[in-house]
Design brief:
The protein is α/β, with parallel strands linked by helices and 176 residues long. It contains 6 helices and 5 strands. 42% of the residues lie in helices and 20% in strands. α2 packs across α3. This is IS6 family transposase.
Length: 176
């Protein structure tokens, strides 16, 4: 779904908000990293079993590879100690712009925190997931549909539900 939707997305801004939340997978808590831009557009997500600098670096690398993203000028994150070390390593390796500013301020992430609510609301009735791969694929579906609903697709407006349904049907070659 991500691959089919990618070419149709609007470009994101250079101000990113990143955060992580917890999702229960097979009775264990896993970490769902999530990033949105200043306008609330979804950049990317990553489900990880670990909550460390390597996972944060993997998440930022994945987000930077997306066709609809730009290298961020500012990265606003919470007080997690993994983010500064991940950003420092990525700047040294040339993966992240060396003048990118990392801001660790609790209240600047309200946009991404509100985005977590949608995932939690969809996951909670199912009592979590039975496998890691099922969780990753299901959350990818949730994210794609939320991206369409938010109006990130360049060819359709955010409030035109019939156009969104027609677009998704055309994307997968099914009748609407």
């Amino acid at each position: 779904m991500d691959l089919r939707l990618g070419p149709h997305l609007r470009m994101t801004s250079g101000s990113w908000r990143g955060d992580e939340t917890y999702v229960r997978v097979k009775g264990r808590w896993m970490y769902l990293y999530h990033a949105v831009d200043a306008r609330g557009q979804t950049i990317d997500f990553l489900l990880s079993a670990k909550h460390n600098a390597a996972a944060a670096r993997r998440f930022f690398r994945k987000a930077l590879k997306q066709a609809h993203t730009v290298n961020p000028c500012t990265l606003s994150v919470d007080k997690n100690a993994a983010y500064p070390s991940a950003a420092k390593i990525m700047k040294n390796n040339g993966e992240l712009w060396r003048f990118a500013k990392l801001r660790q301020v609790k209240y600047l992430n309200n946009i991404v925190e509100q985005d977590h609510r949608r995932i939690k609301r969809l996951v909670r009735p199912g009592f979590g997931f039975k496998s890691f791969h099922t969780a990753r694929r299901t959350i990818a579906g949730y994210e794609v549909m939320a991206t369409v609903r938010k109006g990130q697709v360049a060819v359709i407006p955010a409030n035109d539900m019939s156009a969104q349904a027609t677009f998704v049907a055309a994307l997968f070659g099914v009748a609407a």
